[in-house]
Each structure stands twice: as structure tokens, then as C-alpha cells.
Fold:
Amino acid sequence: MKDNHALLTMKEVSELLRTEMAAVAKMLNSGELAGFKIDNEWRIPKIAITDFIEKRLKSERLESTQRTLNDSTMWAKEIRKSMPEYENELRKKTFSKGTLGEFLQQGLNKLDSVEDDTNES
Structure:
């Protein structure tokens, strides 16, 4: 039998993932982790662990990217560092609600307030 098709018990999976058996049971019952029962005991193919980890990592990367893209302060820092002349233009204009210009202005304002708080300390 190929190693990827080897079957693990819930205890082995919990040790491998360094989590509680209850967490493994929850993932199995929800279908987040693939497995099947033999005589009322879960068996989990090794390949299911690999698939589970890959899906989790992909999900974490997507969430991290989304947080970064939605962080107006991060964008403001980059504008201030790379395009200071654009920062001045952004501050002068009025942008419609929900536009990229408004988003960037909000980031610059947050950045200013963080810097003000730091300077007061």
C-alpha cells in the first residue's frame, strides 16, 4: 500500500496536527477533514492530512492578502515612502464615498493620527 493511502487514527492525527482529539472529531464530522469510519472508529488517509494542510495554508494566505489589501494605512505608508508628491495631491482633492481616493485619504489620516499619538508619548 502506498504511504499516502496509509490510514491514521484520530489520536495519531491529533498528535500530528498537535491539537485535541475533539478538534479532529469536529473537522471529520464537518467534512473539513476527510475520513471514514470502520466499526465506529475514524480512519483518516494520510493524503487527507496533506490536503487539509494545503487548504488551510491557502486559506490563510488568502486571508492575509485580503487583510493587506484592505489596510488603508499600509497603502498610505507606501504612498508616503514612494510617492510623496502623490500624497499632497491626495490631500488636496475631494473624493466620492467608496472610491480608492477616499480609501487612501482615510489611510493617510489614520497614519497622521498614529504619528500624532507617537509624538505625544
About this structure: The mean pLDDT is 91. Strands lie at 7-8, 36-38, 41-45. Helices lie at 10-17, 21-30, 46-69, 72-82, 84-92, 100-120. The chain has two domains: 3-68, 71-120.
